[in-house]
Amino acid sequence: MISIIAIDLRNPKPIYEQIKDNIKQLIITGALKPDEKLPSVRELAQTTSINPNTIQKAYRDLESDGFIYTVSGRGNFVAPSPKNVDSKRLEELYDILRAAVGELSYLGAAQSNIIEIVQNTISRSRPQGGNKT
Description:
- The chain has 133 residues and is mainly alpha-helical.
- It has two domains: 15-78, Arc Repressor Mutant, subunit A, CATH 1.10.10.10; 87-124.
- The protein contains five helices and two strands; from the N terminus they run H-H-H-E-E-H-H.
- It has helices at 15-28, 41-48, 52-64, 87-106, 111-124; strands at residues 68-71, 75-78.
- The chain has a two-stranded antiparallel ribbon.
- Strand 1 and strand 2 form a beta hairpin.
- The radius of gyration is 17 Å and the shape is globular.
- 13% of the residues are buried.
- The model is unreliable at 128-133 (pLDDT under 50).
């Protein structure tokens, strides 16, 4: 089950995106395992005091992004890591990474700190079944 969903009501990011980001992070770090059942929309709405429609929107987005799947009558589950690489999505993420690294460099962040953060992030992420570049 989901251990921690942190919602910041002062954050300008919509609540459904915060939920989506929290669950996605739990999946990426391996806190939620493939095929693990997620709480129902109703359960998560009760534990977080968030409107069920907001939870449902986050779940729909996670499903369309390939992070979870739905089994009719049984609920939502964590999807296994994709076997096929979505090259368009990878390029989008590389562009985001390039922009972030560029901005960090511009702001004076040390190259060694940037590299350390990338390496630590990779080591905290669950194994993805090989080197996908």
